[in-house]
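Still learning. Any example?
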Amino acid sequence: MTDRNALIQPDHGQSAIALHLVDKASLADWTKTLNAGQRSALAAQKFEGGAGEVAIVPDGDGWSAVGGVASTASLSSWCLARLAEVLPGGTYRLAREEALGGEGTGVAPALHGWLTAQYRFDRYRKEAKAVEPRVLLTKAVKAIEPSLAEASAVMMVRDLVNTPAEDMGPAQLEAEARALAKAHHATVHVHAGDTLEHDYPMVHAVGRAASRHHAPRLIELEWGDPAHPRVAIVGKGVCFDSGGLDIKPSSGMALMKKDMGGAAHALALAGLIMGHGLKVRLHLLVPAVENAISGNAFRPGDILRSRQGLSVEITNTDAEGRLVLGDALTRATEMKPELVIDFATLTGAARVALGPDLPAMFARTDETAAGLLRAGLERDDPCWRLPLHDGYREWLKSDVADLQNSPSGGFAGASVAALFLDRFVGEAIDWAHFDTFAWRPAGKPGRPKGGDALGLRAAWGFLLERFGA
Protein backbone atom coordinates (compact mmCIF):
# COMPACT_ATOMS: atom_id res chain seq x y z
CA MET A 1 0.00 0.00 0.00
CA THR A 2 1.32 3.45 -0.90
CA ASP A 3 2.34 5.66 2.01
CA ARG A 4 -0.04 8.57 1.53
CA ASN A 5 2.19 10.85 3.58
CA ALA A 6 4.95 10.41 1.01
CA LEU A 7 2.88 11.63 -1.94
CA ILE A 8 3.65 15.32 -1.29
CA GLN A 9 7.14 16.37 -0.26
CA PRO A 10 8.94 19.69 0.31
CA ASP A 11 10.85 20.82 -2.76
CA HIS A 12 14.55 20.92 -1.94
CA GLY A 13 15.70 20.77 -5.54
CA GLN A 14 15.38 17.01 -5.95
CA SER A 15 15.37 15.53 -9.42
CA ALA A 16 11.82 15.68 -10.78
CA ILE A 17 9.73 15.83 -13.93
CA ALA A 18 8.29 19.26 -14.70
CA LEU A 19 4.51 19.79 -14.64
CA HIS A 20 3.22 22.80 -16.55
CA LEU A 21 -0.28 24.12 -15.81
CA VAL A 22 -1.99 26.25 -18.44
CA ASP A 23 -5.50 27.46 -19.13
CA LYS A 24 -7.04 28.38 -22.45
CA ALA A 25 -6.20 32.04 -21.96
CA SER A 26 -2.50 31.41 -21.34
CA LEU A 27 -1.97 28.55 -23.79
CA ALA A 28 -0.92 30.67 -26.77
CA ASP A 29 1.74 32.58 -24.83
CA TRP A 30 3.03 29.41 -23.21
CA THR A 31 3.41 27.56 -26.51
CA LYS A 32 5.63 30.40 -27.74
CA THR A 33 8.22 29.24 -25.19
CA LEU A 34 8.31 25.76 -26.77
CA ASN A 35 10.39 24.53 -29.66
CA ALA A 36 8.91 23.19 -32.88
CA GLY A 37 9.09 19.57 -31.76
CA GLN A 38 7.26 20.31 -28.54
CA ARG A 39 4.55 22.25 -30.33
CA SER A 40 4.12 19.38 -32.77
CA ALA A 41 3.77 16.95 -29.86
CA LEU A 42 1.02 19.09 -28.34
CA ALA A 43 -0.78 19.36 -31.64
CA ALA A 44 -0.60 15.59 -32.18
CA GLN A 45 -2.28 15.05 -28.80
CA LYS A 46 -4.93 17.70 -29.61
CA PHE A 47 -4.12 19.58 -26.44
CA GLU A 48 -6.15 22.80 -26.21
CA GLY A 49 -5.68 23.78 -22.55
CA GLY A 50 -9.11 22.67 -21.39
CA ALA A 51 -9.61 21.69 -17.77
CA GLY A 52 -8.60 18.06 -17.26
CA GLU A 53 -6.58 17.72 -20.49
CA VAL A 54 -3.14 16.12 -20.16
CA ALA A 55 -0.29 15.97 -22.65
CA ILE A 56 3.35 14.85 -22.69
CA VAL A 57 6.04 16.88 -24.43
CA PRO A 58 9.69 16.02 -25.11
CA ASP A 59 12.09 17.90 -22.87
CA GLY A 60 15.77 17.43 -23.65
CA ASP A 61 16.63 13.77 -23.05
CA GLY A 62 13.40 13.28 -21.12
CA TRP A 63 9.88 14.64 -21.07
CA SER A 64 7.58 16.96 -19.16
CA ALA A 65 3.84 17.02 -18.68
CA VAL A 66 1.28 19.72 -19.21
CA GLY A 67 -2.18 19.89 -17.67
CA GLY A 68 -5.10 22.07 -18.55
CA VAL A 69 -6.90 23.89 -15.72
CA ALA A 70 -9.90 26.18 -15.59
CA SER A 71 -7.76 29.07 -14.37
CA THR A 72 -4.10 29.28 -13.44
CA ALA A 73 -4.95 32.28 -11.24
CA SER A 74 -7.36 30.33 -9.02
CA LEU A 75 -6.58 26.69 -8.58
CA SER A 76 -9.28 24.28 -7.43
CA SER A 77 -8.98 21.18 -5.28
CA TRP A 78 -9.27 19.03 -8.40
CA CYS A 79 -7.03 20.75 -10.95
CA LEU A 80 -4.13 18.29 -10.41
CA ALA A 81 -6.29 15.22 -9.93
CA ARG A 82 -6.37 14.09 -13.54
CA LEU A 83 -2.59 14.41 -13.77
CA ALA A 84 -2.17 12.30 -10.63
CA GLU A 85 -4.45 9.64 -12.10
CA VAL A 86 -2.88 9.22 -15.55
CA LEU A 87 0.80 10.13 -15.28
CA PRO A 88 3.36 7.37 -14.79
CA GLY A 89 4.74 6.80 -11.34
CA GLY A 90 7.55 9.19 -10.48
CA THR A 91 8.46 12.48 -8.84
CA TYR A 92 7.07 15.74 -10.22
CA ARG A 93 7.27 19.48 -9.54
CA LEU A 94 5.12 22.35 -10.74
CA ALA A 95 6.90 24.67 -13.14
CA ARG A 96 6.67 28.32 -12.07
CA GLU A 97 4.84 27.31 -8.92
CA GLU A 98 5.18 30.79 -7.44
CA ALA A 99 3.07 32.26 -10.25
CA LEU A 100 0.17 29.82 -9.85
CA GLY A 101 -2.95 30.42 -7.82
CA GLY A 102 -2.70 34.20 -7.66
CA GLU A 103 -1.97 36.01 -4.41
CA GLY A 104 -4.45 34.03 -2.30
CA THR A 105 -3.88 30.43 -1.32
CA GLY A 106 -1.55 29.66 -4.20
CA VAL A 107 -1.20 25.98 -5.00
CA ALA A 108 -2.43 24.80 -1.59
CA PRO A 109 -5.96 23.83 -2.73
CA ALA A 110 -4.59 21.70 -5.58
CA LEU A 111 -2.65 19.43 -3.23
CA HIS A 112 -5.90 17.82 -2.06
CA GLY A 113 -6.78 16.40 -5.47
CA TRP A 114 -3.25 15.15 -6.06
CA LEU A 115 -3.63 13.03 -2.95
CA THR A 116 -7.23 11.86 -3.30
CA ALA A 117 -6.74 10.94 -6.95
CA GLN A 118 -4.36 8.21 -5.83
CA TYR A 119 -6.88 6.57 -3.51
CA ARG A 120 -7.48 2.87 -4.08
CA PHE A 121 -9.88 0.61 -2.17
CA ASP A 122 -7.87 -2.58 -2.37
CA ARG A 123 -8.89 -4.43 0.77
CA TYR A 124 -10.51 -7.29 -1.14
CA ARG A 125 -8.47 -7.48 -4.34
CA LYS A 126 -4.97 -7.28 -5.66
CA GLU A 127 -4.13 -5.05 -8.60
CA ALA A 128 -2.88 -7.02 -11.59
CA LYS A 129 -0.08 -4.48 -11.82
CA ALA A 130 1.08 -2.39 -8.91
CA VAL A 131 0.28 1.31 -9.29
CA GLU A 132 3.43 3.32 -8.73
CA PRO A 133 2.98 6.45 -6.59
CA ARG A 134 3.15 9.91 -8.09
CA VAL A 135 5.06 12.19 -5.74
CA LEU A 136 4.67 15.96 -5.95
CA LEU A 137 7.35 18.36 -4.76
CA THR A 138 6.14 21.75 -3.59
CA LYS A 139 7.50 24.95 -2.06
CA ALA A 140 4.17 25.42 -0.24
CA VAL A 141 5.59 23.60 2.76
CA LYS A 142 3.05 24.96 5.26
CA ALA A 143 0.22 23.53 3.17
CA ILE A 144 1.54 19.96 3.17
CA GLU A 145 0.42 18.85 6.63
CA PRO A 146 -3.11 20.33 6.45
CA SER A 147 -3.57 18.86 2.97
CA LEU A 148 -2.47 15.43 4.13
CA ALA A 149 -4.82 15.62 7.12
CA GLU A 150 -7.87 16.56 5.05
CA ALA A 151 -7.12 14.02 2.35
CA SER A 152 -6.60 11.29 4.95
CA ALA A 153 -9.96 12.16 6.51
CA VAL A 154 -11.68 11.95 3.12
CA MET A 155 -10.02 8.62 2.41
CA MET A 156 -11.04 7.35 5.84
CA VAL A 157 -14.67 8.04 4.93
CA ARG A 158 -14.18 6.24 1.61
CA ASP A 159 -12.63 3.19 3.28
CA LEU A 160 -15.36 2.90 5.90
CA VAL A 161 -18.22 3.36 3.45
CA ASN A 162 -16.76 1.02 0.83
CA THR A 163 -16.32 -1.81 3.33
CA PRO A 164 -19.27 -4.24 3.23
CA ALA A 165 -21.56 -4.56 6.23
CA GLU A 166 -20.26 -7.93 7.40
CA ASP A 167 -16.88 -6.29 8.02
CA MET A 168 -18.18 -2.85 9.00
CA GLY A 169 -20.85 -3.47 11.60
CA PRO A 170 -21.46 -1.69 14.93
CA ALA A 171 -18.51 -3.47 16.55
CA GLN A 172 -16.18 -2.27 13.81
CA LEU A 173 -17.40 1.32 14.16
CA GLU A 174 -16.65 1.02 17.87
CA ALA A 175 -13.16 -0.23 17.01
CA GLU A 176 -12.62 2.78 14.75
CA ALA A 177 -13.63 5.12 17.57
CA ARG A 178 -11.34 3.34 20.00
CA ALA A 179 -8.44 3.59 17.55
CA LEU A 180 -9.02 7.35 17.25
CA ALA A 181 -9.20 7.66 21.01
CA LYS A 182 -5.94 5.79 21.45
CA ALA A 183 -4.18 7.93 18.85
CA HIS A 184 -5.33 11.20 20.42
CA HIS A 185 -5.60 10.33 24.13
CA ALA A 186 -9.38 10.61 24.20
CA THR A 187 -11.84 8.62 26.28
CA VAL A 188 -14.50 6.26 24.95
CA HIS A 189 -17.67 5.00 26.60
CA VAL A 190 -20.00 2.48 24.94
CA HIS A 191 -23.52 1.29 25.80
CA ALA A 192 -24.20 -1.95 23.93
CA GLY A 193 -26.85 -4.63 23.51
CA ASP A 194 -29.74 -4.81 25.94
CA THR A 195 -28.10 -2.24 28.23
CA LEU A 196 -29.39 0.34 25.73
CA GLU A 197 -33.04 -0.43 26.41
CA HIS A 198 -33.44 1.96 29.33
CA ASP A 199 -31.17 4.88 28.40
CA TYR A 200 -31.30 4.74 24.59
CA PRO A 201 -34.58 2.98 23.82
CA MET A 202 -34.87 4.02 20.16
CA VAL A 203 -31.31 2.89 19.39
CA HIS A 204 -32.13 -0.40 21.08
CA ALA A 205 -35.43 -0.87 19.24
CA VAL A 206 -33.91 -0.31 15.81
CA GLY A 207 -30.90 -2.55 16.42
CA ARG A 208 -32.33 -5.36 18.53
CA ALA A 209 -33.20 -7.64 15.60
CA ALA A 210 -29.57 -7.95 14.50
CA SER A 211 -27.40 -10.89 15.47
CA ARG A 212 -25.15 -10.67 18.53
CA HIS A 213 -22.26 -10.18 16.11
CA HIS A 214 -23.88 -6.89 15.06
CA ALA A 215 -25.44 -5.88 18.39
CA PRO A 216 -26.44 -2.19 18.61
CA ARG A 217 -24.44 0.34 20.58
CA LEU A 218 -24.14 4.02 21.41
CA ILE A 219 -20.51 5.08 21.07
CA GLU A 220 -19.28 8.22 22.85
CA LEU A 221 -15.82 9.78 22.61
CA GLU A 222 -14.68 12.85 24.54
CA TRP A 223 -11.51 14.84 24.06
CA GLY A 224 -10.07 18.24 24.84
CA ASP A 225 -9.96 20.80 27.61
CA PRO A 226 -13.30 20.99 29.47
CA ALA A 227 -12.79 24.77 29.66
CA HIS A 228 -13.00 25.07 25.87
CA PRO A 229 -16.32 25.41 23.98
CA ARG A 230 -18.16 22.09 23.81
CA VAL A 231 -18.83 20.83 20.28
CA ALA A 232 -20.87 17.70 19.63
CA ILE A 233 -20.43 15.72 16.39
CA VAL A 234 -23.08 13.06 15.78
CA GLY A 235 -23.11 10.47 12.98
CA LYS A 236 -25.79 8.02 11.90
CA GLY A 237 -24.26 4.55 12.04
CA VAL A 238 -26.81 2.26 10.40
CA CYS A 239 -24.32 -0.32 9.19
CA PHE A 240 -26.87 -2.04 6.98
CA ASP A 241 -30.46 -1.09 6.33
CA SER A 242 -32.81 -3.83 5.16
CA GLY A 243 -35.71 -1.48 5.75
CA GLY A 244 -36.84 -3.64 8.64
CA LEU A 245 -40.31 -5.14 8.39
CA ASP A 246 -41.10 -2.44 5.83
CA ILE A 247 -38.48 -4.24 3.79
CA LYS A 248 -36.69 -2.60 0.90
CA PRO A 249 -36.63 -4.24 -2.53
CA SER A 250 -33.33 -5.83 -3.45
CA SER A 251 -32.45 -2.83 -5.62
CA GLY A 252 -32.99 -0.58 -2.62
CA MET A 253 -30.62 -2.64 -0.47
CA ALA A 254 -27.80 -2.72 -2.99
CA LEU A 255 -25.99 0.30 -1.53
CA MET A 256 -27.13 0.00 2.06
CA LYS A 257 -23.65 -0.77 3.31
CA LYS A 258 -23.24 3.00 2.95
CA ASP A 259 -26.02 3.83 5.43
CA MET A 260 -23.32 4.34 8.06
CA GLY A 261 -21.86 7.14 5.94
CA GLY A 262 -22.88 9.70 8.56
CA ALA A 263 -20.86 7.87 11.19
CA ALA A 264 -17.90 7.74 8.80
CA HIS A 265 -18.09 11.52 8.35
CA ALA A 266 -18.37 12.08 12.11
CA LEU A 267 -15.39 9.85 12.89
CA ALA A 268 -13.26 11.51 10.22
CA LEU A 269 -14.19 14.99 11.40
CA ALA A 270 -13.36 14.03 14.98
CA GLY A 271 -9.97 12.86 13.77
CA LEU A 272 -9.36 16.22 12.09
CA ILE A 273 -10.38 18.13 15.21
CA MET A 274 -8.12 16.12 17.49
CA GLY A 275 -5.22 15.92 15.05
CA HIS A 276 -5.26 19.68 14.62
CA GLY A 277 -5.60 20.32 18.32
CA LEU A 278 -8.63 22.55 17.81
CA LYS A 279 -9.49 24.36 21.03
CA VAL A 280 -12.82 22.70 21.66
CA ARG A 281 -14.22 20.11 24.03
CA LEU A 282 -15.18 17.42 21.55
CA HIS A 283 -18.10 15.08 22.14
CA LEU A 284 -18.48 12.48 19.38
CA LEU A 285 -21.59 10.30 19.37
CA VAL A 286 -22.30 7.41 17.01
CA PRO A 287 -25.47 5.34 17.36
CA ALA A 288 -24.40 2.13 15.59
CA VAL A 289 -27.02 -0.43 14.56
CA GLU A 290 -28.05 -2.84 11.86
CA ASN A 291 -31.70 -2.47 10.83
CA ALA A 292 -32.36 -6.18 10.47
CA ILE A 293 -35.39 -8.48 10.34
CA SER A 294 -36.17 -11.18 12.88
CA GLY A 295 -38.90 -12.19 15.29
CA ASN A 296 -38.10 -9.32 17.65
CA ALA A 297 -37.81 -6.56 15.03
CA PHE A 298 -39.68 -3.36 15.82
CA ARG A 299 -42.95 -3.10 13.92
CA PRO A 300 -45.09 -0.56 12.07
CA GLY A 301 -47.58 0.70 14.62
CA ASP A 302 -45.24 0.29 17.59
CA ILE A 303 -44.88 3.30 19.87
CA LEU A 304 -41.34 3.81 21.08
CA ARG A 305 -40.21 5.74 24.09
CA SER A 306 -37.24 8.01 23.46
CA ARG A 307 -34.41 9.10 25.74
CA GLN A 308 -35.90 12.60 25.77
CA GLY A 309 -39.25 11.26 26.89
CA LEU A 310 -41.19 11.88 23.68
CA SER A 311 -43.20 8.93 22.37
CA VAL A 312 -42.84 8.08 18.69
CA GLU A 313 -45.34 6.14 16.59
CA ILE A 314 -43.60 3.97 14.02
CA THR A 315 -45.29 4.47 10.67
CA ASN A 316 -42.32 3.15 8.65
CA THR A 317 -39.53 0.92 9.94
CA ASP A 318 -37.41 2.11 7.00
CA ALA A 319 -37.24 5.58 8.57
CA GLU A 320 -34.96 4.27 11.29
CA GLY A 321 -32.01 6.64 11.00
CA ARG A 322 -33.90 9.54 12.51
CA LEU A 323 -34.85 7.33 15.47
CA VAL A 324 -31.30 6.42 16.47
CA LEU A 325 -30.18 10.00 15.87
CA GLY A 326 -32.97 11.25 18.11
CA ASP A 327 -31.54 9.47 21.13
CA ALA A 328 -27.97 10.46 20.26
CA LEU A 329 -28.89 14.13 19.75
CA THR A 330 -30.72 14.12 23.07
CA ARG A 331 -27.59 12.84 24.79
CA ALA A 332 -25.45 15.42 22.99
CA THR A 333 -27.60 18.36 24.00
CA GLU A 334 -27.85 17.24 27.64
CA MET A 335 -24.22 18.35 27.92
CA LYS A 336 -25.09 21.93 26.84
CA PRO A 337 -22.81 22.19 23.79
CA GLU A 338 -22.17 25.45 22.01
CA LEU A 339 -22.62 23.70 18.67
CA VAL A 340 -24.00 20.39 17.40
CA ILE A 341 -23.33 19.07 13.90
CA ASP A 342 -24.77 15.78 12.71
CA PHE A 343 -24.21 13.78 9.53
CA ALA A 344 -26.61 11.21 8.17
CA THR A 345 -27.47 9.38 4.97
CA LEU A 346 -31.03 10.17 5.93
CA THR A 347 -33.44 10.65 3.02
CA GLY A 348 -33.87 9.79 -0.63
CA ALA A 349 -35.77 13.07 -0.85
CA ALA A 350 -32.52 15.01 -0.45
CA ARG A 351 -31.04 13.13 -3.39
CA VAL A 352 -34.12 13.74 -5.53
CA ALA A 353 -33.87 17.45 -4.74
CA LEU A 354 -30.12 17.95 -5.00
CA GLY A 355 -28.62 14.92 -6.74
CA PRO A 356 -25.60 12.97 -5.51
CA ASP A 357 -23.04 15.80 -5.38
CA LEU A 358 -24.71 18.24 -2.99
CA PRO A 359 -25.44 17.33 0.63
CA ALA A 360 -28.54 18.98 1.99
CA MET A 361 -27.66 21.22 4.93
CA PHE A 362 -30.08 22.47 7.57
CA ALA A 363 -29.21 25.00 10.26
CA ARG A 364 -31.12 26.82 12.95
CA THR A 365 -29.26 30.10 12.45
CA ASP A 366 -28.52 32.04 9.29
CA GLU A 367 -25.01 32.77 10.58
CA THR A 368 -24.09 29.10 10.92
CA ALA A 369 -25.67 28.27 7.57
CA ALA A 370 -23.74 31.05 5.86
CA GLY A 371 -20.50 29.91 7.46
CA LEU A 372 -20.97 26.33 6.31
CA LEU A 373 -21.90 27.38 2.78
CA ARG A 374 -18.89 29.69 2.57
CA ALA A 375 -16.49 27.05 3.91
CA GLY A 376 -17.85 24.52 1.43
CA LEU A 377 -17.23 26.80 -1.53
CA GLU A 378 -13.73 27.64 -0.30
CA ARG A 379 -12.85 23.94 -0.09
CA ASP A 380 -14.66 22.76 -3.24
CA ASP A 381 -17.08 20.82 -1.04
CA PRO A 382 -20.34 22.66 -1.73
CA CYS A 383 -23.54 22.05 0.16
CA TRP A 384 -27.02 23.48 -0.23
CA ARG A 385 -29.27 24.82 2.49
CA LEU A 386 -32.81 23.46 2.74
CA PRO A 387 -35.43 24.91 5.09
CA LEU A 388 -36.56 23.93 8.56
CA HIS A 389 -40.01 25.20 7.66
CA ASP A 390 -42.26 25.57 10.71
CA GLY A 391 -45.36 24.98 8.62
CA TYR A 392 -44.38 21.35 8.08
CA ARG A 393 -44.05 20.49 11.78
CA GLU A 394 -47.72 19.57 11.92
CA TRP A 395 -47.05 16.68 9.53
CA LEU A 396 -45.19 14.93 12.35
CA LYS A 397 -48.31 14.82 14.55
CA SER A 398 -49.63 11.42 15.57
CA ASP A 399 -53.07 10.43 16.81
CA VAL A 400 -51.60 8.08 19.41
CA ALA A 401 -48.12 9.44 20.29
CA ASP A 402 -46.21 12.69 20.59
CA LEU A 403 -45.05 12.39 16.99
CA GLN A 404 -44.72 9.91 14.14
CA ASN A 405 -41.47 9.00 12.44
CA SER A 406 -42.55 9.09 8.77
CA PRO A 407 -45.57 11.08 7.60
CA SER A 408 -47.48 9.91 4.55
CA GLY A 409 -47.72 12.12 1.48
CA GLY A 410 -44.06 12.31 0.54
CA PHE A 411 -43.80 16.11 0.40
CA ALA A 412 -40.60 17.82 1.61
CA GLY A 413 -39.17 14.57 2.91
CA ALA A 414 -35.72 15.93 3.74
CA SER A 415 -37.12 18.93 5.61
CA VAL A 416 -39.64 16.83 7.54
CA ALA A 417 -36.89 14.40 8.60
CA ALA A 418 -34.77 17.35 9.74
CA LEU A 419 -37.74 18.72 11.69
CA PHE A 420 -38.07 15.35 13.40
CA LEU A 421 -34.43 15.61 14.51
CA ASP A 422 -34.99 19.20 15.61
CA ARG A 423 -37.42 17.94 18.28
CA PHE A 424 -34.51 16.15 19.99
CA VAL A 425 -32.07 19.07 20.00
CA GLY A 426 -32.29 21.34 23.04
CA GLU A 427 -33.73 24.80 22.64
CA ALA A 428 -31.34 27.65 21.88
CA ILE A 429 -28.55 25.24 20.89
CA ASP A 430 -26.80 26.02 17.61
CA TRP A 431 -27.38 22.97 15.41
CA ALA A 432 -26.58 21.99 11.82
CA HIS A 433 -27.63 18.80 10.06
CA PHE A 434 -26.10 17.30 6.91
CA ASP A 435 -28.24 14.90 4.88
CA THR A 436 -25.41 13.49 2.77
CA PHE A 437 -25.30 10.75 0.13
CA ALA A 438 -21.75 9.57 1.06
CA TRP A 439 -21.47 7.95 -2.37
CA ARG A 440 -20.44 8.81 -5.91
CA PRO A 441 -22.37 6.88 -8.55
CA ALA A 442 -19.88 8.00 -11.22
CA GLY A 443 -16.23 8.91 -10.91
CA LYS A 444 -14.64 12.30 -11.44
CA PRO A 445 -10.95 13.29 -11.26
CA GLY A 446 -9.86 12.81 -7.66
CA ARG A 447 -13.28 11.39 -6.75
CA PRO A 448 -13.65 7.74 -7.80
CA LYS A 449 -16.93 5.88 -7.91
CA GLY A 450 -17.88 4.58 -4.48
CA GLY A 451 -17.95 5.92 -0.96
CA ASP A 452 -17.00 9.56 -0.55
CA ALA A 453 -17.00 12.47 1.89
CA LEU A 454 -19.62 15.08 1.03
CA GLY A 455 -19.91 17.91 3.53
CA LEU A 456 -16.90 16.86 5.61
CA ARG A 457 -14.52 19.55 4.36
CA ALA A 458 -17.25 22.19 4.55
CA ALA A 459 -17.82 21.39 8.22
CA TRP A 460 -14.09 21.30 8.94
CA GLY A 461 -13.48 24.67 7.30
CA PHE A 462 -16.36 26.13 9.30
CA LEU A 463 -14.96 24.79 12.58
CA LEU A 464 -11.52 26.20 11.79
CA GLU A 465 -13.02 29.61 11.11
CA ARG A 466 -15.23 29.59 14.20
CA PHE A 467 -12.86 28.17 16.78
CA GLY A 468 -9.54 29.38 15.43
CA ALA A 469 -7.13 27.83 12.96
The chain has a mean pLDDT of 96. Residues 151-467 form a domain with the Aminopeptidase fold (CATH 3.40.630.10).
